[in-house]
Design a protein that fits this description.
The chain is mainly α. The chain is built from 16 helices and no strands. It has helices at residues 2-14, 22-25, 43-59, 65-79, 83-88, 92-111, 117-124, 131-144, 154-163, 167-170, 173-190, 193-196, 200-214, 219-231, 238-265, 290-300. Helix 9 (154-163) runs antiparallel to helix 11, helix 11 packs across helix 13 and helix 13 (200-214) crosses helix 15. The protein is globular, with a radius of gyration of 20 Å. It starts with a helix and ends in a 26-residue tail after the last helix. The relative contact order is 0.13.
Length: 326
C-alpha cells in the first residue's frame, strides 16, 4: 500500500508537477519577454520569499510542509512560461504577488485554512496589494496549473520513505532525530534555486542519506534504512542532488560564520529600524523597493514584532489548527 502510494507520488512529480529552469528560460536573449529593466528577478528574490513564508507558517503554528508546497506551486507556475510568468521576470512587485498568492492557495488546499482576501490584503500584505489583485491572481494561477495543487513535496517523501521501516526501528529516538534532520535539510534545500529543479523524491532521499551520515545509527537501524532503499525506486539523480545539498550546507555554514563575525566586529551595523522609521512610504507598491522591504522584515522579525507583517499571527486566535479562518 505504501509502495503504491510512493509510486503514484513519483509519477505525479515526473508529469504534472515538474518544474523547469524558468529563470534561465525566461531571461535568455531568445525569450520574447526579455527586457533591459534593472528589475530582473534573481535567485535571491525567490529565496527571500520562501524565507518569509517559513515565518508565516511558523507563526501560524503549522508545518513548514505548507511553505514547501507554496514554493512548488510557484516554481510550477513560473515554469509554464505563460505571458504573466514572462512579464513577472522583470517586475518584483508581480513576482512577490504571485508567491504570496501561491502561499494562500497552499494554506487553503493543504492546511484547511480559509484565507479571507481582505485580511490577506490588509494584514498579511500590509496593504501592498488590493483584494481584487489577490483574487484575480489566485484564479490565474489555478487555471495555469490546471487546478492541480496537491502535488507531493519533499517533507511528504521523507515521511513516506521512513514509514517503510519496521515498526521497532521507526519508533526509535534515533530515527526521530533523523526525520527532524532530514526535514530541516529539505527546508534549506528549497531555498536553493538549482535544487528546485530536482525531483522532490530525489531531494528527500538525499536529505535522508546526508542525515544518516551525520548521526550515529545503530547497525540494525542502518541496515533497515538500506533495505528500505532497495524497496523503492530511487531517482537516478539522487547522488548529484546529494552533492548539491552538501554544497548548499557548506555555503550556509560560511554565511552564518560571516554574519556572526560581522556582528561581533560591528554591532551598530546590525541595528534594526524603529517603528517610527517604518513610514507608509516604505511599504509602497514600488517594484524596486518591495523585495528590500520584505528582506528587512525577515531580518527584523525576531526583534521587532510590531512592524513585521509575519508576527501579527502570534496573537491571533484565528491561527489555531485546521479548518481555521484567517
Amino acid at each position: 500500500m505504501l509502495l503504491d502510494q510512493l509510486r503514484t507520488m513519483q509519477l505525479k512529480e515526473e508529469t504534472f508537477h515538474k518544474s523547469s529552469d524558468y529563470l534561465s528560460e525566461l531571461s535568455t536573449s531568445a525569450s520574447p519577454y526579455r527586457s533591459h529593466s534593472s528589475e530582473q528577478v534573481t535567485h535571491a528574490d525567490r529565496s527571500s520569499m520562501i524565507t518569509w513564508s517559513y515565518q508565516i507558517v511558523d507563526c501560524c503554528r503549522i508545518s513548514r510542509s505548507i511553505a514547501l508546497s507554496a514554493a512548488s506551486l510557484f516554481d510550477r507556475f513560473m515554469s509554464k512560461q505563460s505571458l504573466r510568468a514572462g512579464l513577472v521576470m522583470h517586475s518584483k512587485y508581480d513576482f512577490q504577488l504571485i508567491f504570496i498568492t501561491c502561499l494562500i492557495i497552499a494554506l487553503k488546499a493543504r492546511a484547511g485554512m480559509v484565507a479571507e482576501s481582505d485580511f490577506v490584503s490588509a494584514t498579511m500584505c500590509q496593504g501592498l496589494y488590493q483584494q481584487d489583485e489577490i483574487v484575480c491572481m489566485e484564479m490565474e494561477i489555478l487555471k495555469v496549473l490546471g487546478w492541480r495543487v496537491n502535488g507531493p513535496n519533499i517533507h511528504e517523501f521523507i515521511h513516506l520513505y521512513l514509514e517503510l521501516l519496521p515498526d521497532d526501528v521507526k519508533s526509535s529516538k534515533t530515527i526521530a532525530m533523523l526525520t527532524n534532520s532530514a526535514t530541516a535539510m529539505a527546508e534549506q534545500a528549497t531555498l536553493d534555486y538549482p535544487m528546485a529543479l530536482q525531483a522532490p523524491s530525489a531531494i528527500a532521499m538525499a536529505c535522508i542519506l546526508s542525515s544518516m551520515q551525520s548521526l550515529e545509527l545503530h547497525p540494525l537501524e542502518r541496515i533497515a534504512l538500506l533495505h528500505m532503499m532497495t524497496r523503492v525506486n530511487v531517482n537516478e539523480n539522487v547522488h548529484h542532488v546529494r552533492a548539491r545539498l552538501e554544497h548548499v550546507e557548506q555555503r550556509q555554514r560560511l554565511e552564518v560564520t560571516s554574519k556572526h563575525s560581522s556582528r561581533c566586529s560591528s554591532p551598530s551595523m546590525h541595528s534594526h529600524q524603529s517603528n517610527g522609521s517604518r513610514s507608509s512610504s516604505s511599504r509602497r507598491a514600488d517594484a524596486e523597493g518591495i523585495m528590500i522591504y520584505y528582506g528587512q522584515m525577515i531580518d527584523n522579525a525576531s526583534s521587532d514584532s510590531h512592524t513585521s507583517p509575519v508576527c501579527v499571527f502570534e496573537s491571533s486566535s484565528s491561527c489555531e489548527p485546521s479548518g481555521r479562518r484567517l
